[in-house]
Design a protein that fits this description.
7 helices; 0% strand
Length: 114
């Protein structure tokens, strides 16, 4: 899609990273991570009962802002908890959806495109 928008062909050897930066878009993997982060944030801050029961804070005082990973390392909860734990304190502590979205997008831009 980016190649069509910019009129670039595969033979031109333009990296996707440059096309994404030019259009200020996120890659599919980055969009997925952003969605997972926002779902986790909503579960922990808005008290969505069906989801929030799966995300439990750690018992340790040292890691009180971090979430426990699920016993299954491939589960949505484990992956989301891992991403959530990597984010900024501002993202974890804000009560405003707008700020959470901005912080999530900023954080996701630092992740590899792959």
């Amino acid at each position: 899609m980016l190649r069509i928008i910019h009129g670039v062909k595969t033979k031109d050897k333009v990296p996707i990273r440059k096309l994404l930066e030019k259009t200020e878009m996120l890659s599919i993997n980055q969009l997925t991570c952003q969605s997972m982060l926002m779902d986790t944030w909503k579960a922990t801050h808005l008290g969505l009962e069906s989801i929030s029961a799966h995300f439990k804070p750690r018992d340790s005082v040292r890691f009180k802002d971090q979430l426990q990973a699920n016993s299954d390392p491939q589960s949505f909860v484990s992956k989301s908890s891992k991403l959530f734990n990597m984010t900024t304190q501002r993202f974890k502590n804000t009560n405003l959806t707008k700020v959470a979205k901005q912080e999530a997008k900023t954080f996701v831009r630092s992740l590899p495109i792959i």
